[in-house]
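Suppose you are handed only these lines of text.
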Amino acid sequence: MLIKSSRDGFIHPASSEITPRALYRERRDILKLMASGAAGTVLASWASREAFAQQAQRPGKGAALAGSKSGVPGAVTMEKVTEYKDATTYNNFYEFGTDKADPAKNAHTLKPTPWVVEVEGLVKKPTKFALEDLLKLGAQEERIYRLRCVEGWSMVIPWVGYSMSKLIEKVEPLGNAKFVEFISQADPKTMPFVGSSVLDWPYVEGLRMDEAMHPLALLSFGMYGEVLPNQNGAPVRLVVPWKYGFKSGKSLVRIRFTDREPKTAWNKAAANEYGFYSNVNPNVDHPRWSQATERRIGEDGLFAKKRKTLMFNGYEPQVGQLYAGMDLKKNF
Ligand code: MTE
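From them, the structure of the protein bound to MTE can be written out as follows.
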């Protein structure tokens, strides 16, 4: 993101492999049928096929993690899901290197179990959650979200998790808690790039309390029906679909409730480029490039057209109200 090199950062590894996305295509077909009212007869076969898919056709090597279809408005886009291979080999996870291919190569050293997430700060019930307990705080749902990276590319990913609000309610924030800070693991023994000067480690992100409470803000444990691969932020990460991807911290170890706007890693590195809000906004350019369009990963053939970037990444009906009356150029 920040690195000012001659590379444009948009080099995308050629994907020749056809990945088992049949499950997702099929699901989309069924959702279309449901919309047309012809769904009843196919539901049973969907359920049994899903069970089969979880056992036999999972895309990677991770343990199955199923999520029921989410009822949260806006949580399931009907757009074509990005190939599993692309979503797991074209990553930003600077703890493992700054090249898009580095996390998939290097993140095998991350140890996602055992794992503890410490929730602290301005809450009535500060708690250290073992991963097993955290997994059970809410029902796992599948959310098919667009992810728009500040660098100008996007993907569509089927995440598994539950609304962050479930965890927030559990720890009972105090009245003066105005922000939530999300702190990622920073272990130089297992994360080779921690200690490099690109960022001030650990990776820290933050949300305003009402943003964190929004039902679309997802605490995610899985993707494509499996537990998160290491390079995507195992074992638990945030996904905030209406903000640039860097707001979605990976491999979280601490969640802190505060009365002050958190000092986030990218904001500390370049305050004029990465604001605290970082809502996807085609009308506010990054100082070094336009944000009006995006390249959808998987559609990057020679003649592929760029897509128009949508306000709040297309989630404006759901989240626009959070920013009513705010100057979004100032609060970028
Ligand atoms: N979290 C941590 N801890 N470290 C990172 O470097 N990169 C961010 C975000 N979360 C990052 C992080 C950026 S820039 C993006 S675009 C998304 O993760 C990418 O998520 P993905 O690799 O699962 O697509």
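What can we learn from it? The chain has one domain: 2-323. Residues 188 and 194 are 5 Å apart (CA to CA).
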